[in-house]
Amino acid sequence: MARKEFQIFDEFIEKKGLRHTPQRGTILAVFLDTEKHVSADELYKLVRKKDPAIGYTTVYRTMKLLSASGLCGETEFGDGVLRFEHKYGHEHHDHLICIKCGKFTEVTDSGLERIQENMVKSHGFKSLKHKLEIFGICRNC
Amino acid sequence: MARKEFQIFDEFIEKKGLRHTPQRGTILAVFLDTEKHVSADELYKLVRKKDPAIGYTTVYRTMKLLSASGLCGETEFGDGVLRFEHKYGHEHHDHLICIKCGKFTEVTDSGLERIQENMVKSHGFKSLKHKLEIFGICRNC
DNA sequence: AGTATTATTGAAATCGCTTTTCAATAAGGG
DNA sequence: CCCTTATTGAAAAGCGATTTCAATAATACT
């Protein structure tokens, strides 16, 4: 199932006249193996386990490429740390964030989206993207 | 109308055993005169016009006090800059952010809030606060 | 295959904003 | 009018994101 993502990345690399490198391959593989919402630093630590020679900078830059290619999305939950989440095959979603255990849950609600869209329109606004984060306590906490 | 805010701040200062200073008075006055969503730096520049001797640090620390006293809220729109907004007399609201002119609009929709709350509950979540930001193009742009 | 070109890499430096440190100053209680 | 202690402001430190730069390696072209 990860094959499709590699193909997308390959095409992106070629379209942009960039180059294939083992580092990029490793980083993409680690990212795909990962649960959602990793920071660059968390990812760097995971990548090091597979190849200790890969530097933080390369991880960081590769994630920017993945963002540009549409494979990952960047999101920030107010703690000053940018996190990356899987985007391929994931529709738009909101986030429930447990302030106790730190767990992120993705949720989708088409009714909510529709009402939001109406509200926005009634303000003469044309919405391009939005971000809803709900902080609270999850079922287990 | 701003009188009430000064009173709240006075009470906060006294309850905490802190001290009244001319700097704090000036900073609060400037903040209240301000449109919503100012960064510490923007506020510092405004404060300097009234009293060039006041330092950035004092502005920054006073804003933290205003936050603690409930007079202002802190919010961050993903550009890495913390902004302060009026909170006294302002009910919860969401933000429409124009990506062309940078204007922030506050909106409230009770229907939206209700649906959100239902959605959250259906996930066994207890919500404490939430943040909805909608990025797009405003009527004038 | 060999070589020239140029993207990529990784360490270190830098950036931008937030937060803390510290010595000097000033608020306010006695 | 002191004395205690919070406050101030400049400068430093923190901290994550981003850039720089010399060395390296991936591709295109012989």
Question: How would you describe this protein?
Answer:
The structure is a homodimer of 141-residue chains. Chain A has 141 residues and is of the alpha+beta class. Chain A is globular and about 50 Å long. Chain A has two domains: 3-86, Orthogonal Bundle (Arc Repressor Mutant, subunit A); 94-136, Dna Ligase, domain 1, CATH 3.30.1490.190. Chain A has helices spanning 3-15, 22-33, 40-50, 56-69, 110-121; strands at 38-39, 72-76, 82-86, 94-98, 104-107, 126-137. In chain A, the strands form two sheets. In chain A, strands 1-3-2 form a three-stranded antiparallel beta sheet. In chain A, strands 5-4-6 form a three-stranded mixed beta sheet, with helices on one face. Chain A starts with a helix and ends with a strand. Chain A is built from five helices and six strands, in the order H-H-E-H-H-E-E-E-E-H-E. Helices cover 44% and strands 23% of the residues of chain A. In chain A, helix 2 (22-33) packs across helix 3 (40-50), helix 2 (22-33) packs across helix 4 and helix 3 packs across helix 4 (56-69). In chain A, a hairpin with a 5-residue loop joins strand 2 (72-76) and strand 3. The interface between A and B is medium-sized, with 32 and 32 residues. Strand 6 (126-137) of chain A pairs antiparallel with strand 6 (126-137) of chain B, so a sheet runs across the interface. Chain A binds a DNA duplex (30 and 30 nucleotides) through helix 4.
